[in-house]
From TrEMBL:
PANTHER family (UniProt xref): PLASTIDAL GLYCOLATE_GLYCERATE TRANSLOCATOR 1, CHLOROPLASTIC (PTHR30249:SF0), PUTATIVE SEROTONIN TRANSPORTER (PTHR30249)
Organism: Australozyma saopauloensis
Keyword hit for Nucleotide-binding: no
Topology in membrane: Multi-pass membrane protein
Protein origin, superkingdom: Eukaryota
UniProt biased composition (Acidic residues): 191-205
Protein name: LrgB-like protein
Region described as Disordered: spans on this chain: 185-205
Location in or out of the cell: Membrane
Principal cellular location given in the protein's record: membrane
Key words, A-Z: Membrane, Transmembrane, Transmembrane helix
Pfam families: LrgB
Length: 616
């Protein structure tokens, strides 16, 4: 009789798991997507303002990040300006309370979607790697020259940045500006200035973000999607203290791994946490009594499905997309590529977790790229009846260039922004040629992730202000070296003009690098590859690099600024979990770095000078 009841128990367990996960599913597939659509709509408005009104080329995502940072800082400042007990019952105190309320509830609204994008930021860099087979061919000799410039130039600039930062901190210490010991990893002004400037805050606001367990309720923070949670924003006012639930960005793990995470602290990597978050969801968040009501097979199935509900969701998306891909009259690639990309990302995270010895070189982006290209190649051979050229034809629709900024233009694109020729449209290669590709979907979300970086920047804004005179000289020197040295050196050793200019953007995050190199007339594909490889190298060898230079692990200024300038958003995503204060320095550094580079590229005289140096 036990065997006859097994199917019924399994189905009951699945139903129970879905019921227990209902709030998580609602948060993941309703609340977060709605927030993403709102943010993308706002960014679209910013882009229209920049392009059609102000008439300048500037990334709307960076503008959104800066505006969001300013809004947070203004709300926070106004919420604290009259927060002392003597103003509590006056109109000034009420105004301050209103701004504090606005800050708290504004963060409650934007937190889920922005945290989701921060957690998935590694996936958003994938399209540039996937479409590499479509790039123009390059000779072996030129490839080796590019590799030499990439390695030698990258190491020299990183060493220069490190020693400039250390030298500036030493000089400021001699001048009496209160640079602390390297072991303390921080820099601050005089004690009197600190007291005056930080009157409304406690030292807790400057403490490192702690690794903690996720909360008991799934609805509150959508734990298995968001790696970063704005948990509490504590304010200390004279004589009173109020608790605001949005102070620190806290890294969230899984309930069963929480003790291990707390013990490992900074040794826990972003990839470990991402896998832990994705692999277990409902078990830790749901109250134990919900599962104790179940018994036997029903309980086992319910717990298993709840823990791996993300795997089942994205696997189902991939399986459902197969008929739409293989039916020749439809042949739509978006759901097929999207389901494949997300599911392969989970597998890419699983590999270094299963085989820890591979963590030093098996970065998820590299593994994910191989898995996607391999499966796409096999799938295209099956659809195109063994013709390898079909693989490249399908790949042209992975990133068509039809992102949220031109989604309703009415023009059919493919191959990363090329207009589909009429003869190709006549062949009816796909039933919906005007649809965006998976890469367009992910690149659109990358813009949201750039805006989301304003959250850790807001949390650690005072570190940047106090260290302004330490940070800006290395930034300006790195900008000058990158903008005016790379194109000349590359062109002189025989690299083509377009690729020589493409090297200017090797240290700029993709959101900023694309308009930068497009404005200068360089190779966007080379820029994208160099940018991503720079970030991956920073993640894989960063610790060894700083260890060889004897940089203390808690010197978040040197580590954050160096990785921010040289390794961009990928290294920042890595730092968000292992050293959040360094991540804030990193995000601020690459944002300022990239913004200044884009501004310089829009100046006609500078643009003409660079193009003249490389024979364009």
């Amino acid at each position: 009789m036990g065997e006859s009841l097994l199917p019924a128990q399994v189905s009951t367990g699945i139903v129970k798991a879905l019921w227990y996960s209902r709030w998580y599913i609602f948060q993941s597939f309703v609340v977060i997507p709605f927030g993403l659509l709102v943010i993308l709509t706002i960014l679209y408005g910013f882009n229209q303002l920049l392009v059609n009104v102000i008439k300048i080329r500037f990334p709307c995502s960076v503008l959104g990040m800066l505006i969001n940072l300013v809004v947070l800082c203004v709300l926070n400042a106004m919420g604290n300006v009259w927060s002392s007990p003597k103003h509590k019952k006056t109109w000034k105190g009420k105004v301050s309370a209103v701004f504090a309320w606005l800050l708290e509830h504004y963060l409650r609204i934007v937190k889920p979607s922005m945290n989701f994008c921060l957690k998935w930021i590694n996936v958003f860099f994938i399209p540039s790697f996937i479409i590499l087979p479509l790039s123009e061919p390059i000779s072996f000799v030129e490839c080796m020259k590019i590799a030499a410039v990439f390695v030698i130039g990258g190491l020299l600039l990183m060493v220069l940045d490190v020693y400039m930062l250390l030298g500036l901190k030493y000089v400021l210490l001699l001048l009496g500006y209160g640079v602390t010991k390297a072991e303390e990893g921080t820099f601050s002004g005089s004690e009197d200035n600190e007291t005056d400037a930080e009157n409304d805050y406690t030292e807790e606001e400057h403490s490192e973000i702690e690794l903690q367990t996720i909360s008991k309720t799934r609805l509150s923070t959508s734990e298995d999607i968001t790696t970063i949670d704005l948990a509490e924003l504590r304010r200390s006012r004279e004589g009173t203290s109020s608790s605001d639930p949005f102070d620190d960005l806290r890294v969230r793990g899984t309930p069963e791994d929480s003790i291990q995470i707390q013990k490992s602290n900074s040794e826990t990597s972003v990839n470990d946490l991402a896998l832990q978050v994705s692999a277990t969801t409902a078990k830790v968040e749901e109250k134990p009594d919900k599962y104790t009501q179940l018994t036997g097979t029903t309980k086992t199935v319910a717990i298993f499905v709840s823990n791996y509900i993300d795997w089942f969701m994205y696997l189902a998306l991939f399986l459902i997309s197969l008929p739409f891909y293989y039916i020749s009259s439809i042949h739509v690639m978006l759901p097929y590529h999207l389901g494949l990309t997300v599911f392969c990302y989970y597998i890419a995270l699983l590999i270094p977790m299963t085989f820890p010895q591979t963590k030093k070189f098996a970065h998820p982006i590299l593994i994910l790229t191989f898995l996607i290209l391999f499966v796409c190649f096999i799938g295209s051979l099956m659809y195109h009846k063994g013709q390898p050229v079909g693989f490249l034809d399908d790949l042209k629709y992975y990133k068509t260039g039809k992102n949220y900024l031109n989604l309703f233009s009415g023009v059919a694109y493919y191959n990363n922004g090329m207009v589909v020729p009429q003869n190709v449209l006549a062949q009816k290669f796909t039933a919906h040629p005007q649809w965006p590709g998976c890469g367009d979907f992910l690149s659109s979300l990358m813009d949201v992730s750039i805006v989301s970086l304003s959250l850790p920047m807001f949390t650690h804004r005072k570190d940047f202000i106090k260290n302004f005179w330490v940070l800006m000289p290395p930034l300006l020197v790195s900008i000058a070296a990158t903008f005016f040295t790379y194109p000349v050196v590359c062109y002189k050793i025989g690299i083509s003009s377009e690729r020589s200019i493409g090297f200017i953007g090797r240290l700029v995050t993709l959101a900023l690098g694309t308009p930068l190199i497009t404005s200068l007339g360089g190779s966007v594909s080379l820029m994208a590859v160099c940018t991503i490889l720079s970030g991956i190298c920073g993640v894989l060898i960063g610790d060894l690099f700083f260890k060889l230079l004897r940089i203390p692990e808690n010197d978040f200024i040197t580590r954050g600024v160096t990785l921010g300038i040289n390794c961009g958003a990928i290294a920042t995503a890595h730092l968000l979990n292992i050293d959040p204060r360094a991540a804030s320095m990193s995000s601020l550094s690459f944002s300022v770095f990239g913004t200044i580079m884009v501004i310089m590229s829009s100046i006609g005289a500078v643009k003409g000078l660079i193009q003249g140096w490389v024979g364009m």
